[in-house]
Design a protein that fits this description.
Blueprint lengths: L1 H18 L12 H11 L3 H29 L3 H25 L2
């Protein structure tokens, strides 16, 4: 479910960025925080990994949902604004799933 939804949302963002005038090239480079989080996950195993991974997914999806909702309302690139509005409900479902796993 997650892979399919993320693949679809990435395709929507890329298409919306390409449709912008001028076209926008998304930067796929991890941020410093993302790289640090990934490095930390690589050192963990078992239950420790699971807990940190789920915690990170909750945080990331909260941030993504906030970003999508705000951009869907206040964004200044029409194609990206529309994509954000389409993606927000999917991110909200993922966040609910991540939160449910976090309670286990």
């Amino acid at each position: 479910m997650m892979v399919a939804a993320h693949t679809e949302s990435t395709a929507k963002i890329k298409a919306a960025a390409k449709a912008a005038s001028p076209a926008i090239t998304p930067n796929a480079t991890l941020t410093k925080d993302q790289a640090e989080d990934l490095a930390e996950l690589k050192t963990l195993k078992g239950a420790e990994f699971d807990k940190e991974y789920i915690d990170g997914q909750v945080d990331a999806h909260e941030d993504a949902l906030d970003l999508m909702r705000k951009y869907a309302v206040d964004g200044n690139v029409v194609s990206l604004k529309q994509a954000a509005g389409e993606i927000a409900p999917v991110v909200e479902k993922h966040l609910s799933s991540a939160r449910a796993l976090d309670k286990d």
